[in-house]
Write a structure and sequence with these properties.
The chain is α+β, with helices and mostly antiparallel strands. The chain contains 2 helices and 6 strands, in the order ααββββββ. It has a 4-stranded antiparallel beta sheet with strand order 3-4-5-6, with no helix packed on it. A two-stranded antiparallel ribbon has the order 1-2. The protein is elongated and about 50 Å long.
């Protein structure tokens, strides 16, 4: 059973990108350099990707992320995650705050 590109999550897209990169870089497989460059930039410079049949929603990466020593989302008096559009998440030692 094959999975359509519209049902792939970001981790699957990143894994496939790594495999394609190996084929191009190590095995010297033929490829369209322009399309490959665009695909690489998409994987390197974006956050979440939600591909649908005729539309794709691509989200920016956050401006910053703050974690505590145990790698849980945490910030005091400021958002633990903040995006350029102003959306933010406040979190205290991994517990999201209203």
């Amino acid at each position: 059973m094959s999975v359509s590109p519209t049902k792939l999550g970001r981790s699957e897209l990143v894994w496939r990108s790594s495999f394609i990169d190996y084929c191009i870089s190590v095995l010297d497989c033929n490829h369209d350099i322009k399309i490959w460059n665009i695909y690489q930039q998409l994987m390197k410079n974006t956050g979440w990707i939600f591909p649908f049949e005729k539309t794709c929603i691509v989200c920016d990466r956050p401006m910053f992320l703050c974690f505590d020593k145990e790698q849980r989302l945490h910030a005091e008096g400021k958002p633990a995650i903040q995006f350029t559009d102003g959306f933010s998440v406040y979190s205290h030692h991994g517990l999201n705050l209203p």
